[in-house]
Specification:
heterodimer, A: 352 residues, alpha/beta, nine-stranded mixed β-sheet, three-stranded mixed β-sheet, 14 helices, 15 strands, elongated, B: 326 residues, mainly alpha, MetI-like fold, two-stranded antiparallel ribbon, flat
Chain lengths: 352, 326
């Protein structure tokens, strides 16, 4: 009896799933592809937005590179990326000028496994650069000890763990090191892949975190959200104002708020090593990429309406998922910037 | 009783010829259908090869053989030297075969020659089941079980207790993720292929072969060594090559345990890289055209290596069976 009931329940739920799948496949209104880092918040946004407006958005988190490629080939309605498009990539986009719309912000934290520490480590940008470049090889190196008085640092080797896969996390991390350390910028630069001189490569945040957790003496970098959700230890990093800042949602938003952006900015800006006294320096925005000229009147209007909603309502749910919301001043600028999107040769402002 | 009406006979005759015609027709359809099936598969292989080589062409044209011969993989600088990945693919697969082959043949010999019948089915089934485990599960097991085990126990034992650290093959610090870890994971993944094929060919060795050896006064071990295994040799080699094919192309599990470091090191304790891992790691975030093309070129090289391995296996099987025939 129970068995029959259960099997009926299973059949019903399978049917429900199936019909749900078919229904959503039929009525997808917009498709997007790109970054994996903001995927959790974007999927919450798309679900919330579908519930309140009925507009369904299908997003494939295939990586920033894939997002840029698909947008350039016009196979998706919008792209998403953790790093801004280069001038060359912008010139190669087939649908004309591409606009960058920052959505939320994230941070990269330095996580480590040093047994016997009684408080979080303090690190400067130079020290982090030298560790990841293989110039500092011991935990009790003078550069680390000088910033951590009273902390017993072992005389053991440092094992560097970095990302093996091309990733926006590596981009944000190397962008920061590139901006603070002259020796880093002259040799290693910034990018989604770095030619790491030392260390092991782990695939994904989980690959790096797994390796660091297991190996005493190791150090790596992961996204703030990942580190918080998995209870990893992370270092306080010295910012441009000379203070050691604990990575947090507030200190990331503070970093963006302290940036003085010119009025006509295209938002392809780095907030690494931001000037404010409360700014966490290894922070970055993540972007949604849209064509300025929307050729499809219906889709274009839906896309703009979604972005309006994201800035008005979506930002509120960012913090709950460990993403930093954009500062209010930037949001209002972006809301007016949405008016520069042209839908089938009419400005958004004109249609309303 | 009336005689059969003539028109009925005529009709029946027509019906029968029609049926013969119909069966001849269905034969033709069947033939065409199977021919189509047989042609689609090689056609697919050729289509894949053409697509990969076409996409790889810009990199080959620009970089030439330096993709194969140099070992500097620096995306930002536009250097694409895949030698460490080629080296890693070959070495990790070789390590896998060195570990897996004796084990797999041991399993196969036990199951076909010694095992009581009631044990044969369950053990054979469990070994075959290894092939059904998804590779990402192997990878996770590698990270959480195998790597700590290697780092804490196996590597120090090999390097210090056995003094293998004196040779270049086991020198240096033991981090865990390493060529050795990749080889061990691959050996477990290749094992069911080798043992399953070997078991089948050993079981197919005729009874007369065994009886003849025993009649000549051979012990059981001598019978297996001199009469059974040589008879099955070409099949066993085929199984090993199947396992090698599995090891060469494996991506996910290896990426998770090999350390992803594009450097050539003689030490098995050092991290390495493989071609499949390189592609899996970088493809999704590659935007630059030359970078994409270089990754395709690595795919093309892997394709060629697999082709060479398979051709070599064919040749080996052929020469072994010819020697026996003589």
């Amino acid at each position: 009896m129970i068995k029959t009931v259960r099997s009926i329940a299973v059949a019903l739920s399978a049917a429900a799933l199936l019909s749900g799948g078919i229904a959503s496949a039929q009525s997808v209104d917009l498709t997007g592809a790109g970054a994996t880092f903001p995927y959790p918040i974007y999927s919450k946004w798309f679900a919330d937005y579908a519930q309140s407006t009925g507009v369904k958005i299908n997003y494939q988190s295939i990586g920033s590179g894939g997002g840029i490629r698909q947008l350039s080939e016009q196979t998706v309605d919008f792209g998403a990326s953790d790093g801004p498009m280069s001038d060359q990539e912008l010139a190669g986009a087939k649908g004309g000028p591409v606009l960058h719309f920052p959505t939320v912000m994230g941070a990269v934290v330095v996580t480590y496994n040093v047994p016997g520490l009684n408080r979080p480590l303090n690190l400067t940008g130079d020290a982090i650069a030298d560790i990841f470049a293989g110039k500092i090889t011991k935990w009790n190196d003078a550069q680390i000890v000088a910033q951590n008085r009273g902390v017993a640092l072992p005389n053991s080797d440092i094992l560097v763990v970095h990302r093996s896969d091309g990733s926006g996390t590596t981009y944000i991390f190397s962008d920061y090191l590139n901006s603070v350390s002259p020796s880093w910028s002259s040799s290693l630069g910034k990018g989604k892949e770095i030619k790491w001189p030392v260390g092991l490569g782990g695939k994904g945040n989980e690959g790096v975190a797994g390796q660091v957790k297991q190996t005493p003496g190791s150090i790596g970098y992961v996204e703030l959200a990942y580190a918080k959700q998995n209870g990893l230890p992370f270092a306080n990093v010295k910012n441009a104002a000379g203070r050691y800042i604990t990575p947090s949602i507030a200190s990331v938003t503070a970093a963006a708020a302290s940036m003085k952006l010119p009025k006509n900015t295209d938002y392809r800006v780095s907030i690494a090593n931001a000037p404010g006294k409360d700014s966490y320096p290894i922070s970055s925005m993540t972007w949604i990429l849209v064509y300025q000229n929307q050729t499809d009147r219906v889709k274009g209007a839906k896309l703009v309406n979604f972005l309006k909603w994201a800035y008005k309502d979506g930002e509120k749910s960012a913090a709950a998922l460990d993403y930093a919301p954009l500062p209010a001043s930037m949001v209002s600028q972006l809301q007016s910037r949405l008016k520069t999107i042209r839908i089938a040769d009419t400005r958004v402002g004109d249609t309303r | 009783m009336t005689s059969l009406p003539v028109d009925w006979l005529e009709k029946e005759k027509d019906r029968r010829t029609l049926r013969v015609d119909a069966s001849a027709f269905s034969d033709k359809v069947y033939e065409a259908l199977t021919a189509a099936c047989a042609l689609v598969v090689p056609g697919l292989v050729i289509a894949i090869a053409v697509a990969v080589f076409a996409a790889a062409w810009p990199a080959f044209a620009k970089l030439g053989l330096s993709i194969v011969t140099t070992s500097d993989w620096d995306v930002a600088a536009g250097h694409f030297g895949a030698a460490p990945a080629i080296f890693g693919t070959i070495v990790s697969s070789a390590v896998a075969l060195i570990i897996a082959t004796p084990l797999a043949i041991g399993v196969a010999v036990f199951l076909s020659e010694f095992s009581p019948t009631w044990l044969r089915q369950p053990v054979g089934f469990l070994v075959d089941l290894l092939a059904a485990i998804p590779s990402v599960v192997y990878g996770l097991w590698g990270i959480f079980v195998l790597i700590p085990l290697l780092r804490e126990h196996v590597m120090p034992f090999l390097r210090d207790t056995l003094h293998l650290g004196a040779t270049p093959f086991f020198r240096g610090p033991a981090y865990g993720p390493s060529m050795l870890a990749a080889g061990v994971i691959l050996s477990i993944m290749a094992l069911p292929y080798i043992s399953s094929v070997s078991r089948e060919v050993l079981m197919a060795v005729p009874r007369s072969q065994r009886e003849a050896a025993l009649a000549l006064g051979a012990t059981r071990w001598e019978m297996i060594r001199d009469a059974v295994v040589p008879y099955a040799r070409s099949g066993i080699i085929g199984g090993i090559m199947l396992g090698l094919g599995r090891a060469l192309g494996e991506t996910m599990a290896v990426t998770m345990v090999i350390g992803n470091r594009p450097e050539i090191s003689a030490s098995l304790l050092a991290p390495g890289y493989t071609m499949a891992s390189l592609i899996a790691n970088e493809f999704s975030e590659a935007t630059n055209d030359l970078h994409l093309s270089a990754l395709m070129a690595v795919g093309a090289i892997l394709f060629i290596i697999t082709l060479i391995v398979n051709a070599g296996a064919r040749w080996l099987v052929w020469s072994v069976s010819r020697k026996r025939a003589q």
